[in-house]
Amino acid sequence: MRSSLQLAVVLHFHQPPTASVLTLEDCFDHIYEPVLDAIEADERLLLNLHFGGRILEHALAHRPDFLGRLAQFWRAGRIELLGGAFYDPVLAAIPERDAISQLQFTANWLKRQLGKVPAGAWLALRAWDPALPRPLSASGVSWTLLDDAQFLAAGLEPEDVHGHYTTERAGHPVGVFPIDHALSRALSEGPEQRMRDHLGVTNLAHQPDERLESVALQGERLVQSGRFNELLAVLDSEYHWLKTIPLSRAFDVFPTRGRVYLPSGADPALTEWSRPAASRAQRRLLREQLEMAGMWTAVEHFVGRVLFDNFLAKYGEADRLHKRMLATSRAVDRLRGVLAERQRKGKASASDGKARKVLERACDALWRAQTHSVYWHGGPEEVGVYDPRLRLSTTRQLMVAQRMVERALGDPARTGWSAFKHDHDADGHAEAVVMTPTLGAVVHAARGGTLWELDLRDRGMPLLTCMSPVEEPYDDTLVGNEVVLVDAEDRPTLPPSGGAWAGVTNPHLARRRVDRQARGAFQDHFLGAETTLETFGFRQFRQLGDFAVEPWELMRVAGPEAEGEPGRVLVGRSGVVKDVESTLLLRIEKEYRFDPLKPRMVLSHAVTNRSRETAGFWHGLEWTMGIPSADAGNISVTTFGGPEEREARLVDGPQDLGRLNWIEIKDQEAEVAIVVQLPELARAWWVPVVSVHEGPDGWQEVIQGHTLLLHRELEIWGEDTLTTDVVIDFLR
User: Please, are residues 126 and 259 in contact by the beta-carbon 8 Å criterion?
Assistant: First the structure.
């Protein structure tokens, strides 16, 4: 005779902030409403549901009846709604003040719209950090769920990982339900008989005791695949021994199994995605060896646990966004602190009410930008950091929040210039942060003396949002940065000119390339003689110098010396350019000049030959940009080389623009033009940055941004200096 099994089924539903109204309407019609219909049809079915903030916002604006049904079922005990941070950030990756604020905002939102406060919280990607009990407890959260792998990594035996436990930090307790990974996978993937088999095995494991198990299922995928109906059929037919239960009731009925301290971790499915390529290969080899010895299952959870922060090391653009988010959070908190201090001292004025509304809007923009979706690959459900529109919208949300704070507290650049040294990305090196009324920039000396950020502040438009393709788990054999002969016929097929996306199976995966060498804004390259447009476009060229990515010195940050003069940031590096038969000692100094009166930047580039002999070399200055409208079909370039004018389009692939001294890059939709002027003719290559990656619609090719390379063969006499001023104007 079977014992009773209590099963807490959690369905998690999430949409990224960029999800369109049409997408959401389709999801409501075919996913969310049918789930509620199933609950309404079977009073014995008790489910736990979590909806991300984007879905709840849409329901409030367009589907109020949906919220009414949720409230009705929740009051009746038919469902348990989980709270959590409203826009699904990884709580451990954002400041604690923002984590608490988002958790409380969700609780207040649900109380206001549905009449109840959630007892538990959903953690995005089940990403855990030992410090989380404090913000969770401070926000009124009684319990959450984590993958069983994190309990096993803490030393628990597999037979003890069920029910719920208690963990704490500095006396702040929170309950944790372990998610049965194997059972969750069986219920997600089916078929129906496999569901029955796994449920039966789970039940028999602990006869005759009553047992509580928790499973977490990705709701959209479960319903779209048809597995949801299969699961309902299994639950109905096995009701005589298998009961569903809301988590709050389970938390009250089943006593805690004791206290446990859990290590940092996240969804085990992220293990392959988060690890660097070399580490991933070592783990695969170790797994194969342990599987042959029959030991892999016993040690799997101790080998290379997931740390979400590793995605920030893997994806440079995700790291840039994350560090910009932290800076914006500090700015928003500064406004919060000013208002709180005025209130405390009794100096609040009528204008403070307006400032508080500004603070609310700034928090909303900041929280939207903290969604986990943009900081990692996204897995099979989302495109994630590979989505240029998501990166652009996230960056613009951060700029909106920053601008609101500046208007409330005073723009640091209101006099025309503001600059300071600060370790902006927490890498141990100071960067120069510059602001004028029209431009914002971060000069990163430690990363090749390049620009890390460049914004049109007055328009809320970021320009450096390109995504460099990196190695992923599906890259079994890739041609990387080693030098190979690349023919023009090897160019990957680019998306159609109508847009950035080509949602079709990619026949060119075998020629997928990754950027083993980071791209940059005003990055110095010394090229081998065999370099061609194609090899440069595929990042398969010899780098003869050590200037591209090695640290430079941040030499000076100086404001305008007189009215109308530019502010300046100077970086420099002495290094070696070495070919087969020659070694050159060079020094390069780059002075970035920012005009305080108009959107203009001048790069003064000086190369000094430090030896007595004449130095000859092929030098290139690379500027990798994003796409202001996120649609590559909008980008075109017009060039002048003497009397000759030429026009090209980004979607037409790599372009040799010839010899020129004037370039205009236009984004029609964003209504912005970048004009580059050179003092003398130079050759220019213009290359789309193309990723080939796997997403929810299969293999896709996406233009992530574009690279402009200005290059010349130079000859500098011994101990002489060659200086070139590149003038860049940003026009509406």
Answer: no
Best CA proximity match to 450, nearest among 425, 470, 471, 469: 425
Cα–Cα distances (Å) from 131 to 127, 371, 697, in that order, read 12, 20, 37
**Identity of the residue numbered 237:** S
The DSSP symbol for 28 reads: I
* Closest among 462, 477, 310, 471 to 398, alpha carbons compared: 462
pLDDT of residue 202: 67
What the block records as the tokens of 256 is 């805690």
More confident residue, 306 or 549: 549
Q: Which of 252, 432, 401, 247 is nearest to 330 (CA)?
A: 401
- Which phi and psi angles does 214 have, rounded to 5°? -120, 135
In percent, the amount of the chain with pLDDT more than 70 equals 91
The backbone region for 155, taken as left when phi is positive above 0, alpha when psi lies in -120 to 50, beta otherwise, is left
CA 701 – CA 632 distance, rounded (Å)? 12
| Nearest Cα to Cα of residue 183 among 198, 161, 204, 167 | 198
What end-to-end distance do the CA atoms of the chain give, in Å?
Answer: 77
pLDDT tens figures, 318-348:
999 999 999 999 999 999 999 888 888 877 7
- Find where tokens 């619609």 sit: 697
Report helix, strand and coil shares of the chain as percent, to nearest 5: 35, 30, 35
* DSSP E strands, 668-720: 672-695, 698-716
Residue type, 697: D
pLDDT of residue 655: 93
**162 alpha carbon, distance to own chain's centre:** 33
Contact criterion met (CB below 8 Å) for 336 and 399: no
Rounded to an integer, what distance in angstroms lies between the CA atom of residue 363 and that of residue 331? Answer: 10
In the numeric block, which tokens belong to residue 536?
């440069």
Cα radius of gyration (the chain)? 28
In whole angstroms, give the CA distance from residue 615 to residue 582.
9
Determine the 3-state secondary structure of 367 from DSSP: helix
d(CA 84, CA 105): 9
Q: Which residues pair with 727 in a beta bridge?
A: 602, 677
Tally of residues, the chain: 732
Q: How do residues 60-97 score in pLDDT, each as one tens digit?
A: 999 999 999 999 999 999 999 999 999 999 999 999 99
Q: 646: part of which helix (H) or strand (E)? A: strand 644-649
For 675-679, which contacts have Cβ atoms below 8 Å and span 24 or more sequence positions? 675/728, 675/729, 675/730, 675/731, 676/708, 676/710, 676/726, 676/727, 676/728, 677/726, 677/727, 677/728, 677/729, 678/710, 678/724, 678/726, 679/724, 679/725
3-state secondary structure of 196: helix
| Whole-number Cα distances in Å, 446 to 312, 316, 423, 424, 603 | 17, 14, 10, 12, 18
Structure tokens at 409: 């507290």
Q: Which residues contact 36 (CB under 8 A, 6 or more apart)?
A: 66, 69, 70, 73
Instruction: Show Cβ contacts of residue 692 under 8 Å, excluding neighbours closer than 6 positions.
Output: 469, 492, 506, 508, 509, 512, 513, 699, 700, 701
3-class DSSP state of 353: helix
Name the average pLDDT for the chain. Answer: 89
Question: Sign (positive/negative) of CA torsion 249, 250, 253, 256?
Answer: negative
Query: What is the C-alpha to C-alpha distance for residues 480 and 423, in angstroms, rounded to an integer?
Result: 31
Average pLDDT over residues 508-514: 64
